[in-house]
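Reviewers of the previous submission asked for a worked example of the structure-prediction workflow described in the proposal, so we include one complete record here. The input consisted solely of the amino acid sequence. No template or homolog information was supplied to the procedure at any stage.
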Amino acid sequence: HAVVASLLDCTADIGLIEAPLTDSLPVSERWLRDEMVVYARADHPLAQRPPSFAELATTPWILREKGSGVRQSSESLLLPHLGHLNVVLELGGGEAIHEAVRLGLGITCASRRAAQRELESGEFAVIPLPGISLERHFYLIWHKEKRLTAGAERLRTVCREWMGREEAGHKTNN
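From that input alone, the workflow returned the following structure tokens.
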């Protein structure tokens, strides 16, 4: 919400967001593909085997605050399958969520990119969710009635180049 508000009041030239826009004034362009993952501490019982949807729904969840792009994506991808989530903690940032997961307070859903280091080190483990796709996209946005500055135009170009490299790498890995 803050990124869109900054564009609309012309205090920002360009933004990156985690969910599709609902406002029509900014222009949005799909940017990067992102895989969301449900994860926990590596020793969490649900990380050892694929859980049932009922187990997932009743397990303690740690999520971002309402209104965040991660929260919106998590709920839109999971709730159709689970019906509800047992949210025991809402936190305002990824590092706070990582710390709560480290303490064993629950499981979470976030971008694989955000937890990559902990997943690769074995500190956290992905909880397998057979049959549930957790893919989303990031978006570039800018005010449609405002000309982009040279810096914003350069950022948009760099982002498009990054997307091209990721798409090329994704095609060779599949």
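Strands lie at 14-17, 26-41, 60-64, 86-91, 108-111, 124-126, 135-143. We consider this example representative of the routine output the project will generate in years two and three.
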